[in-house]
Specification:
heterodimer; A: five-stranded mixed beta sheet; four-stranded antiparallel beta sheet; B: seven-stranded mixed beta sheet; 11 strands; 50% strand
């Protein structure tokens, strides 16, 4: 799996849009980008997955530039309940290889009232 | 609810003991992954099984072992437990062969070694 780099922490105010960027310079052709959210003492929760351009679902958007070396998770109008750790994971969902699943330290997002 | 179940929720045991953690994946998912998360640490990948076969291995200690049964549930066995093994252990499943697909996590088992 491609190595990823994310900011360690971010703060934002309620009601704002939050963008968290993940860098993955050595992403491979067949790799997808997946984001997870984790609350304390709970298992991570799948948020969104994409391969290129833009993906949107009911909770977030994922922006992927043409070179795919980075991606941005966008959370619209955040609330206090969005305070959590967000992980970016890059990998090929379908082909076995020498996978070392590395979630890294993630980005700790704190929403301020 | 992710559809992944883990038992037990909490486990308290003494050093030197052996425990077994159980995971039932989402219906239809063939892949099962095990992770360890110590206090305020990131998720450490331990091992993955796909349709009964071991497919990927992370930093799993030799004292730990796992298996996936024909009904696709999985068990993680931890032996000769040490204080440092105290952590949350998560199981995840996916309908893709590798962890690069969408993983769905269980609620975890909190292991406390005293």
């Amino acid at each position: 799996l491609a190595k990823t780099t994310q900011p360690i922490s971010m703060d934002s105010y309620e009601g704002q849009e939050v963008n968290i960027t993940c860098s993955h310079n050595n992403i491979a052709t067949n790799d997808y980008i997946t984001w997870y959210q984790q609350f304390p003492s709970q298992g991570p929760r799948f948020i969104i997955q994409g391969y290129k351009t833009k993906v949107t679902n009911e909770v977030a958007s994922l922006f992927i530039p043409a070179d795919r070396k980075s991606s941005t998770l966008s959370l619209p109008r955040v609330s206090l309940s969005d305070t959590a750790v967000y992980y970016c994971l890059v990998g090929d969902p379908f082909n076995f290889g020498n996978e070392k699943l590395t979630f890294g330290t993630g980005t700790r997002l704190t929403i301020i009232p | 609810d992710s559809g992944v179940t883990q038992t037990p929720k909490h486990l308290i045991t003494a050093t030197g003991q052996r425990v077994t953690l159980r995971c039932s994946p989402r219906s239809g998912d063939l892949s099962v992954y095990w992770y360890q998360q110590s206090l305020d640490q990131g998720l450490q990948f331990l091992i993955q099984y796909y349709n009964g076969e071991e497919r990927a291995k992370g930093n799993i200690l030799e004292r730990f072992s796992a298996q996936q049964f024909p009904d696709l549930h999985s068990e993680l066995n931890l032996s000769s437990l040490e204080l440092g093994d105290s952590a949350l252990y998560f199981c995840a499943s996916s309908n893709t062969p590798t962890g690069g697909g969408e993983q769905y996590f269980g609620p975890g088992t909190r292991l406390t070694v005293t």
